[in-house]
Each structure stands twice: as C-alpha cells, then as structure tokens.
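Hi C.,

You asked whether I'd gotten around to modeling the 549-residue construct. I have! Everything is below, sequence then structure, no commentary in between.
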Amino acid sequence: MHRRHVLKSTAALAAMAWLQAQAAWAQAASSLGTVGEPRWRSDPFALGVASGEPRPDSVLLWTRLYPGPAQPGQSASDEAQRTHFEEKSGIYAGQNCIVSYEIFADEALSKRVMRGTVATDAGRGWSVHVRVRGLLPGRHYWYRFACGDALSPVGRTRTAPGAQAPVERLRLALASCQHYEQGHYAAHADMAVRDLDLVLFVGDYIYEGSNPRYRVRAHTGGTARTLAEYRERHALYKSDADLRANHAAHPWLCTWDDHEVDNDYAADQDRLYSDPAVFLARRAAAYQAYFEHMPVWPFGQALDALNPAHPRIHRHWAWGQLADLWTLDCRQYRSPQPCRDPIRGGGRAVLQCPEAQDPARTMLGADQQAWLASGLAASQRRWRLLAQSTQVSSTGIDTPLGRTIYTDGWDGYAAARRALLQAVVDAGADNVVLLGGDVHQHVAAQLRLVPNDPTSPIVASEVVTTSVSSRGMSEWALARIRASNPDILHARSDERGYTLIDLSPERLLATFMATPFPAQAGAQLGVQGVFQVVSGQAGIAPVRALGGE
C-alpha cells in the first residue's frame, strides 16, 4: 500500500478510537444531576495532589477522587470500581461532582489569593484539572482541594518567571522509568525534600506489564489493556507515599515513552502486529488514563490542531531569559522500528540494518520536527533544553562482522537523529543540551552529526538519567557499548536514581544521584558523578566521576 494511503488509514483509525473515547465520556457525563456536598466513607484524596505546566501567570493543579482500591491486592473490573466509588461517596456514574480548590500565598495558608470550583464525573475517572490563571510570576503558592466533608493534602507549586526576567538559576530534577515491582521510590523521597523549581519526567511513569524475575513488590493484576486496568495501574503507582510527596512538593513537566501504553509500540503498531484498530483502541484507553492521573492538561483539551486524532503532549516552556525547554513525543508519530522480526515486532539488536539509514524514517513525525526546528531558530534565551524519552547518542557495538544496533532507540532512526541535530546547526544554536531517560543508566555524552567521529564537530551535549527503580543492563554489555562509542564520557547502569540539573547563565551542572539496585525503601542516594556544560563551549565535561567509566 502507498505510504500516503497508510498514513490516511492510520489517521482514520486513530480518529475512530478518539471519537469512541469521547462518546464514552459524553455518555458517562449525561446527567443524573450534580452532587455538591457528598459525605465520604473513606478518604477520596488517597492519590494525593499534584501541579504542573507552570507559566508566568498560571499553573495546572490536579487531583483525582479515589476512595481507595475496590478490591485491595486484587484486580477489579470497571463495574467493581464503579460500585466501590458509589458505596464510598453516594455519587453515581451519571452524576457530576463539585470539587473546590483554594490557592494561598503562604505556607501557613493564611493569605488566600484565589478560590473556585470545578466539576468532574465518571467519564474522566473523577479526575480534576484546574488551570489557575492570574498568578504572579516566579512565586511559590500553596493549594488544596475539598469535596463535601473531605479535605485534600496541601501541595506546593510555583509559577515560571516572567518571559523577560533575567533569571539566575533553574534547578530541576530529571527522572524516568519507575517500575513499581522492581524497587522502591527512594529517588522521589530525595527529590521531594530538595529545593527544586521543577521535576521533569521523561517517560515510563507506569509499566503496563510485569517482570517477576526482579520483583520487589507486586503489581495488582496482569498486563493492562483496558481503561479500567490502566486506571488501576496508575492508582497503584500513586499509592506510593514517596511519589505522592514529590508531586505535592514541586510542579512537574512530563512527556511519555512506551510503557504508559505497551512496550516498544510505534504509532499504531505494537510488538504483536495486532490489528491497528484494536491497538489504537487500547492506546486511546491508555492515553485517557494517563491524562486522568497526571498534572498535564487533560485529554479532551490537549489536541494537536494539525491532527485532532492525536492528543498533543509535545510543548514549549520558558524559564525567564535563562532557558527554552521543549518536551518531545517520541512514540505517537514515529515510524515502526527497522528490520523487525516477522514474529515479534518492536526493538531488537540487529547487525547490518540498512533500513535504519532510510531518510523517510522518523522519530518525531514531520510536523513535530518542523515545530521544533522553528522553535530552535526563534530561540533567543541563553540555554536550549530538549527533553525526550531516550538516549540520542549512539549505543551500537562494534563486532568483527560489523556494528550491532538496538532498533528501538535513535540508532534505529539514524537519519532522523541527524535531522534533529542538523536543525540545531541550521538554527545557529549554541548551549543545546538533550535530556533523556529510558535506558536505565546515567549517561553523559557528546552529540555530533556523525556519531563518534572526532572530525565531526560537537553540536550539542547529552544528559541521560538512570531509572527511578527499573533494572539496568549488565556491566558486560555496557562495557562493550562504552568501548564502541567514544562520544559517551560516562555510563553506569548498576544504580538507580535521578539527575539533578542546576542551570545558571554560566553553566549547566548535572549531578547523577544514585543508589544500588534494587532501590530500597528509605535508601540514601549518593553522588555517582558530576558533569558540566559551560556556556559558549561545545560539549560536556566531567567535574567529578566516581568509577564505572
């Protein structure tokens, strides 16, 4: 089939899945009245509160009415979850519920600056998203929700500085990959008590499946495939007190990777070569559950104007005159992985894969790539941060028979990687740093148009964070990757944690925080290494690295 027809068919299927989700929402919200003062039989704010997407005059507040699991320790059906909610609240699926919110200028909650109400319903999983506007730039605020006789925990957030503000500092925590089964969230506990401006989460917030080999604590239920199952999985993750504390402490910026839906999915295709219509219905359910549980502007409001079948998560953010930051989507628009196994799709290690060099292959999609290139060309701020879900620098391994690559990463999209970095060159942009995750290792690397070629100039720097809890690759495999890729200055996969980014007009400082695998409850994180990018100088360099090189 001609590529144009394939794209049209994919768009039509995605639109159908989207419309089906919207119809379900409309039916659920269809009106048995509004409940303003429910009396709860258990705490409806068990998942906590969160904030995100700070702008100079606004911030997004989130919570979800969730009075605990319907069947603790077991998987519950959609009907069981609905019945449980009705029993604990007296609110029925066809009704709306009113939730109030308050914003304060002080931690003592004595200086209220704003209050309001918002309605939610079963169609959106009783989630609440409030875009609070009219705030002052560069300020901390405290907030809480109430519903009937229940009061939420208090959260702290902050607005971004004014667009023209001469900001001297941005402190953010870069995190990804938090498999609930494979470790505790010591990284979130550490982030929660730090003086941060933002948490930047770049994918694999939940895992749809299990790996019993490394299980420290168990998922509820099997592989998530339905809306009820994805909702249950998100609720399980947010049952973790350290994760809730980190959400309540700081505003978040987020993008996704694959496990929020299915491992190694690409656009409308999964690893099992499922009917695209079937997979897109699953993807729509996963996306809906994601937006219901995250401080990200909701599913029904997050559409890409260029293609309404796709909920848009790629956005641009600014931090005064210090930094532009783009959050990118590396899953929804990408081409399928090259050289796929005819039985099992997705990524794999392959030797000699000419498809990986095909210039028609894309990671970001043409529209997102053009949007990013335009943004880079227009940027006038000191730093340019590109947040995406995986490692951009090459991780191929040289063998006597040629170079082996892993096809789900940027090595499988070599022309798209070159186009991304060429956009940096064409924009004349300096101080460009790519921030990633996914690979379960701390990485500091140089980025060139031709990877690992010392005659090809360094055009950007890369910082990749290790996983919060998910297990990394073996030291044997990583040693071979390091030996085959001189652009990688640091890589360690044996420890879990996050990366502390401290940005000033003069430099970006990346501190790799880590604890041994598996991350234990209450573990103290130490410094694995410190790297810096100096303003106006190409490339990243060590300040301090501790072994594992």
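If it helps when you're writing up: The radius of gyration is 23 Å.

Thanks,
B.
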